[in-house]
Task: structure prediction
Amino acid sequence: MAASFANDPIPVDGLPQLDEADFTPVDRRYATPSIVAAGVFAVIAAIVTAVVASRVDPPFIPIVIGGTITLIPTLSAGFALLERRVAAYLLREHDVSFRSGVINRQIATIPLARVQHVSVNRGPIEQAQNLATLAVNSAGPDLAIPGLSPDQAQQLKLFIIEHSDATSDDTGGDSTPDVASPPPPPPTGQPLPPPPP
Amino acid sequence: MSEPPPPLQRDTSGVDLSTPQRQSKLAVIFLAISIVRRLGFVQAGLLLLLFFRAGAALSVGAIALVVAGVLGTLGYLAWRNFTFQVTGGELVIERGVFSTRRLSIPAERIQSLSIEQELLHRAFGTVKITVDTAGSEGAEFELSAIERPIAEQLQHTVLAERSAAEAAASPSASPTTATTRPDTVVFTHPPKRLAMAALTAWPVAALVLGPIAIIINQFGDVSETVVDTATRSFQWWWIPAGVGIAIVLGMLFNLVGTLVQDHQLTLRHDGRTLRRTSGLLSLTSRASAIDRVQVVTATQSPLQHRVGLTHVKLATVGSDDLAFIGCDTGQLTEIRRLTELESPTPGPAHAPTRRLHPAKIWLTFRNALLAAAALGTLVWLIAGWWALLVVVVPVMAGAAEWRRVRCFRWRLDHRLVTVDHFVDRVTNEALIHKANAVTVSQSLFERRRGLASVQLTTAAGSVSVGMLPVDEARAVRDVVLHAAETDTRRWM
Result:
């Protein structure tokens, strides 16, 4: 073991820092389909448990089993409800981040220089809600930002494409073609950096 | 690329690879096997069963003949339709049994061509080439049987085309990435070193061989004797003996396996690519561009720590992870130097010295306490006051975690390195500019204490540190992001 124990603060002067206050929350409705599905499943499970328990003797076993089966979707619906307030994203000049998680809160950041593929996906329910999900893929882990309006998602996608070597293809809904329109101004209002070499 | 790459010196000593070439006839066998494998061994077995039932009148020999004939024809068709050539800066392959497909792979997309020689190949002087294109799914395919000189010519030509294409695409690239020096051997392991490494590794095979030996024993004469003269004490005596035998068997298994698989384990480099070759019965060769190495992991079991040997694994983008057992300190340093992990001025000032927050010990202890409480209640219902023994669990868990937190070290400079010393000593390191994503996460426990964990994920594995004060974790993230976003070096 090293005799010297060092724990100096890591110098970050002059380095840009990720400020949680800059995060933009996503539209809360993105979680509705999963909450509703989990809720329906829980209600059905509860009803089935009640029916079975009232007919079987001793009722202890079906209550325990049925209770567990009801508890799981209830918990997942509860967590999805709480997560709506947490889900938020941040696009900076050189990276994109997404905050998620209720028990384990995490912020995942992908530098734009590492983005391989970006796409706007809209499932059938999302199309009905007029929402979209932005999927950002790197050679490592991926981000999926739900609860965006279709225009927002397209703007983000165009910005990311223009600042990386990413490829793209969209699924679901009416995918607008990738027109080379001028990129939207970055959130900080600073001038855009020159295109990468 | 606006201009086509300059024409290469054609290697006229072998075949003309710019025209379609076929594999060696030996490939018929391998292609037939791969057809069966694609069908699925289960389905093939079911088909065979069907044959046996339906053709009960026919003899086994006749059925075998029919099956062999069908497979042979399919294999022959597959061989006839399989051609490969290098033309226009691409490796072009046409293949198929009934309908042909054409694959064109630009030379820049090929990460490596590995040459392997299985037992059957040895008899005929042929080799197998595996082409790795390192897509995100690790796409790869193989040329089943080619004469060795042609294979080496193919490997040379494709890699030369790749260098030429890259030089043409980015003329401003530094000269070292464009030139390839002749292969330099970095190290070769003599058999004694391999044996030492095998014997000091964990005899994992014991976990499998042990129970198997016991089960076999159940029906053997030895257990009869034990049961016949059984008193409680005599039965207990067999347990440590059995464990000892299992461990010895496991070590033997390790020894034989290593001596055969890693015979003449050699690492070579040519300035751009690392190549690992080994094998007694079948020679395997794995290669990876140095840039594609993402995470280097060095593991030492307690015994290996004593004798100074390390198991080094290079996680690379694509499917060819390079692993080397039995490296000494000098060889590990050389590997780290080749992958640019070694500091330009190594020394104690660059040793990992940061530590984890000790709250981790309390977390493990508390979780173990909860688990022990649950377990204890269960045991109490069954065995009464024996349940008090369960107290041992959280105490041991807490002590183990205390030792682990005391020994853990990490460091952030141009790389993120963690040294974890729980049972094995495991060092994980990655160059920070290769990060594909950085994640800062806080569990409920960490949030209440202002702590966090940070994880740097590359294209082939990750390095993570937790738990740290949240400001420190965020600082790590910001430093890593800045490096990934400003460093213009190739990251894969």
Notes: DSSP finds 16 helices and 19 strands in chain B.
